[in-house]
Amino acid sequence: MEKNSNIEMITGDPKKAINKLSLPIIASMFLIFANNIIDSIWVAGLGAEPLAALGYITPLFMIIVGFGNGIGAGGNSLISRFIGAEDKTSANNAAIHNLILSVIVSIVISVIFLVFLEPLLVMMGASSVLGYAMDYGFIVFACTIALLMPPIVGGAFRAEGDIKRATLPIALAAIINMILDPIFIYTLNMGIAGAAWATALGPFISLLLMFYWIFVKKDTFLSYNLKDFTNDFGMYKDILVVGIPASLEQLVLSVLTIFVNYMLTIVSGPVAVAVYTAGWRIINIGMLPAIGVGTAAISVAGVAFGAKKYENLRVTARYAVKVALIASIIVCIILNVFSNQIALIFSYSESSAQLAPLIAGFLQIMCLFILYVPFGASAGNVFQGVGKGTISFVLTTFREFILVLIFAYILGFVFNMGEFGIYCGMLLGGGIGSLICYTCIELYINKLIKERGAHGI
């Protein structure tokens, strides 16, 4: 198979590949989450109710993000394995299947959300801010195709090691959103609907840029020419075998957020939801090093698995955890030390000033959650890379939904610790679950190495 510098990088030393792939991914993810933070900052200026409405929409919005990242991970895994096996013809075909699937999934998800948005919001407990939530949500979910396709197409770029084209459009979308937010919300007096339009327009422009590279410039390693396409339902299945479980992982996290919002509403009301909405976005930024390294590990693990280099698979898993953990410790310390200063960015208006000490307290507790992420994220993404998306999904569900939710409920309600107990329960459940996840990936890789040795390979 003819190789370029990107392919040589991704099929070489796993440590170097992770280093090169992860930094741009982290940077682009930072811009995405910074974009979400800026959304919250600008909307916070409208008052606590619009900010709470954004909190109710966030888990639904993250379902779209989850499907984009999930299907992208499925395409990334399949294409990476073909590249590792030096089968470029099948890699090209898989990339086209990945693109077709992105269009179909985008349309289906958009229709579902538009039809069921209002009853979902009512069920989530958003009745008191339903008008604000509908104004924002209807616009965003009508533009699902622009939000969902870039991360799916980006998964194919990551598979071929072209990290620049995988991350640049997504970063561009975030920057455009940041610029448009104040213009639409305040200058044009569109309120929370302006934030929604800014959120939708940025990804649409980034998608056009991706299409330009693929269909006009045509200088990608993978070919999207119809002559390379042979419809194969097996490829759709292979993408979805990883993509659907990976997408459902985000659904699990979104459902967890819905439950946490509901529990917080019971113990403290909409103000607690607003605090959780603002504070959790900061925690999400703190998770970026681990998530970025884990995302890079999908491609590296897929190539190693396709080439049957299982020792490289072990190096990938262990090195990803090591690098992510070091970065996570640093981030955790920073968030704890500067929690009061960070909280001020969500409380600059008179109507939201009371949130500052509450957000600071939240950050001082929940920054510890970041320390668990490297173990769970790296393990889950390596499982995705080798095509075992179902295992990753089961482990994530056990970790992030069952354990976190059970401990949050027990400490928050059974032990009557209220809001503080809910947060402590999330920490306890997440920590135990993440360590279990990492143990599972070590056992799986050991099994592969032993089986290879038993067959004399």
TrEMBL record:
**How would you describe this protein's topology in the membrane?**
Multi-pass membrane protein
Q: Mainly localized where? A: membrane
Would you tell me the Gene Ontology cellular component terms? plasma membrane
Keywords from the UniProt entry: Cell membrane, Membrane, Transmembrane, Transmembrane helix, Transport
Segments crossing the lipid bilayer: 21-45, 51-74, 95-116, 136-157, 169-188, 194-215, 251-276, 282-307, 319-338, 358-379, 391-414, 420-445
Sorted alphabetically, which InterPro entries does this protein's record hold?
A: MATE_fam, MdtK-like, Membrane_Transporter-Flippase
Q: Which GO terms describe its molecular function?
A: antiporter activity; xenobiotic transmembrane transporter activity
- Its protein name is MATE family efflux transporter
